[in-house]
Amino acid sequence: MTPPDVAVTEVADPLAEAAPTMELLLRELDLRWPREAERLHQISRYALLPAGKLLRPLLLMESAEAVGGGGPAVVPAALSVEYLHVGSLVHDDVIDGDTMRRGRPSVAARYGTTDAIVTGDALMLGMFGVLTDGAEEAGGLPPGRVLGAVRVFARAGVDLCRGQAMEGELRGDLGCGLDRYLTMSALKTGALFRAACRGGAILGGGSPAQQHALTSYAEHLGLAFQMHDDLLPYTSDSRTTGKSALSDIAAARPTFPVLLCHAMAGAPARARLEAALGGALPAADALRTVHELLETTGALTAARGRAAAQADRAKSCLERLPRSRATAVLAAVADLSVSRDR
Predict the structure, then answer these.
(1) What is the pTM of this model?
(2) Tally of domains within the chain
């Protein structure tokens, strides 16, 4: 354990610091989804494994530890938030028509739309069974805590759907404004960050003040993560991100740097931006045009700065908690959220 006087920002690599936790999560995930099983189970395994960053399960585990709980008892809950996350990604790929996810065919591309929808449903509904039954099996978390986490996860699922619906409403609307975009992001992306951190704090026995601190941390982290995620088509290639850089352009999806560019640009640049995202150009040409405008208007630099500011605000929320290895990892996750290339 890290000595109590170590600053929360001292851990440089959260995955290295949390390696035993990540190994535990991966091992348990693999055990719960054996290769030999019925079709729906096989497709679910394909969606879940190889695993992504497992960021949300890690956040739940570390949030529980940050308030004095954690350990094997919260592993099922940590996995359940991953089921909700992956189920939503399977559905996202159906909605957006994306054929790549994590550098390989999406579930819809490999198994078809019908099986993808069913698999996403099964993962999200199965989350509750794992959260409740698994917690009891793992060593008897108090029922009140488990019920509190169920409520948090259920609300997160609804918020995620609200965000998805709002994203569809904003599609193609460069005049929607940054405030509406940030509201959508707080719902669609932030929901699962809040669920992981608040759920972890509840399961770990945190006080209301500690739960509030971790919820605030998650809200700023979610915004930082999404702002940076929107930059990746212009800062990383698809081989690194595992997803087509053309996806947002092809879907006429207004992203954070694009909306910032629209607000900062003069009339001629704004007209070019609107033409590029309005379907006047092939997707690859539109991506190049948007990238050029982001650079020349300074929107790319400004977007990086705003994402970093949200990450800093997330870290400042951790100052309300006792300093520990867990808070150091959470702070490092905030740093990682705006420095990653995928």
Answers:
(1) 0.91
(2) 1
Q: How do residues 286-300 score in pLDDT, each as one tens digit? A: 889 999 999 999 999
H or E element, residue 100: strand 100-101
The amino acid sitting at 168 is G
Burial class (CB in 10 A: 0-12, 13-18, 19+), 292: middle
Range of the domain at 301: 14-337
Residue 342 falls inside a structural domain: no
Taking Cα atoms as reference points, which of 10, 12, 30, 28 lies closest to residue 20? 28
The three-state secondary structure class of 174 is coil
Contact 149, 131 (CB under 8 A): yes
Q: Is residue 4 part of a domain?
A: no
What is the rounded CA–CA span in Å between residue 113 and residue 97?
Answer: 10
Please report, for the chain, how many H helices and E strands are present, in that order: 18, 2
- Percent above pLDDT 70 for the chain: 92
Please give the Cα distance from 108 to 17 (Å, whole number): 35
Tell how far CA 297 is from the center of its chain: 28
